[in-house]
Amino acid sequence: MATKKTSAEKRHAQSEVRRLHNKAIKSTCKTYARQFVEAVHAKDQALAQSRLRTLVSELDSARSKGVLTRNAVSRKKSRMTKLYNVTFASEAAK
Fold first, then answer.
1. Helix spans in 1-94 (H)
2. What's the rounded Cα separation, in Å, for the pair 59 and 77?
């Protein structure tokens, strides 16, 4: 007869699955952020704008899944938007 798992063992297994799931979502967000920053540094406004839109969408998705907190998502979106605006504001003024 098989031995039964204790509730602590079950909770540990569940938390491990959640940890890996959350890690994958965070990794995706970091990848999109890195791609956005690279596009900004390359001074490619069209690419940066599309990457920013993708990044914001991914951050909002991570927030709705409970992976990131509301304030963390707001902070990241604000900083990335500011980077975009500061970088391309001088070009828009020309």
1. 7-41, 45-64, 70-93
2. 8
Residue 78's identity, in one-letter code, is S
pLDDT digits (tens, 9 = 90+) for 30-52: 999 999 999 999 999 999 999 99
- Return the closest-CA partner of residue 29 out of 48, 45, 52: 52
Q: What is the pTM of this model?
A: 0.87
- Do 29 and 55 touch, CB atoms closer than 8 A? yes
CA distance 74 to 94: 30
Nearest alpha carbon to residue 82 among 31, 36, 30, 28: 36
Instruction: Give the CA dihedral 86, 44, 52, 33, nearest 10 degrees.
Output: -90
Contact 40, 87 (CB under 8 A): yes
Distance of CA 88 to the CA centre of its chain: 22
Q: Work out the number of other CB atoms within 10 angstroms of the CB of residue 91.
A: 9
